[in-house]
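Possible regression after last week's pipeline update?

I re-ran a chain I had predicted before the update to compare outputs. Posting the input and the new output here so someone can diff against the archived version. Not blocking, just want to make sure nothing changed silently.
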Amino acid sequence: MTENAASSIAWTEDGSDRTSRWQSENGAPPPRVVRIVNDSTTADVAYKMATIGEALLWRGDFNNARQLLSAMTRRVPAAKHMPDASPAERFHLHRQYQARRARVLGMLLVELDSDVRLGLGRAPDVTAAVTEALGPDAAPCVLSLRELLGMIGAHEWRRTGVFVPALDASIHPHYGVFSPVRGEYVRLVTDAPLPVTDRAFDIGTGSGVLAAVLARRGVASVVATDKDPRSVACARANIEALGYADRVEVVQTDIFPPGRAGLIVCNPPWIPTKPTSGIEHAVYDPGSRMLKSFLSRLRGHLAPNGEAWLVVSDLAELLELVTRAELLTAIDAAGLTVVGRTDTTPTHSRVTDSTDVLHEARSRETTSLWRLRAR
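New output (post-update):
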C-alpha cells in the first residue's frame, strides 16, 4: 500500500459532510473536488468534469459505472504521432500521455464499506480481490473504479495462474507482482548451461518463477530475494505450491542475501525511469539503481569460480535512454568479465502492434542472458 493510501478524502452528500480513507496504488493525492454522480450522468458530462480535476463518486448501478468508464476512455484523444521526435523524446512524451490519461480516467470513484463491499446495484463480491490486494484492513475506503477493476483482474490471474512450460506448471501472480507472461527470460534461464553448484541466488525474484526453474533444474539450495513484501508473499506461495519449499528460501531484502553462491541470477528492471505504480517497479528503475547496485556488489557474493546470469532487455538502448557502452563499463568497473551471451527475441503482442507509439523500438528488442564471472 502506498504512502498516500492512508490519507482522507472528503465530500458533501445529502447535505452532510462525509470522509473516508483514500486508497491510491500509484500514490495520487485525494481529489479536492468530489461530485456525486449516478446513472443519469452522461459520458460527456463525466469526461468534462474529470478533465478539470473534479472526481465523480458513483452512486448508481455497477455495470453502468463500467460502461461509463468505457465511454470516458473512448473520449480520451489518441496519442499524437511523433515522426520527428527522437526515440527518447517519443518515450518520455508517451509516458506523459499515459499519466494524463490515467489521471482523467482515475477520477471515477467508488466507495467500499467496512465489510469490503460495494453498495451498488448489480455489484460483484469484491471482498477476496480487495483483501488479496490490500490486506484485511483495506476497507472502508474510496478508490478509483479503474483500480478496483485492476484488483478484480489480478484476482482472476491469481486464481487461474499463468502456465510456464519450463515448470510444466502454473505460476499464480499476486496483485502488484509482475506476471511471467513474457516467457523469453524464463526460456533463457531454462536453457543456459548450468554451472556445477549446489547453491544459487535469484535476485529480485518477483513471482518466484526463476527460483523455481533453478530448483527444477537440480540446484539443491536457492535463496530468492526481493525488497517488495507483495513479491515475497507471492514467491513464497508459488514455491510452496510447486513443492520446492525444501530447496528454495524466499528472503525480503534489498538485492543480496548474506553469503556467496556458485550461481547468481538477476532479471532487473530494464527502463531507467520512474515507476508510477507498484507493479511498474519490475520494469522501471530510476537511474538503473538496481542494475548498478547488483553489478557493483556481485563479486562479494560470488563463490570462487562462480557465475552470474544477468538477464536484461536492450529496449532502453533502442529508446536511447542508455547505451551498451554504459553497461559494459559498469561490468568492467565491477571487476567482472563476460564469458558468454545468449540472445532471444520477445514474442509478446506489442512486438507486432504497429499502432504502438514505441513499435519501432519494440520490434527490434532483444533479451539477453549475460554470463559473468569475477576477474
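Follow-up from reviewer: compared with the archived run. Residues 227 and 252 are 5 Å apart (CA to CA). Marking as no regression found.
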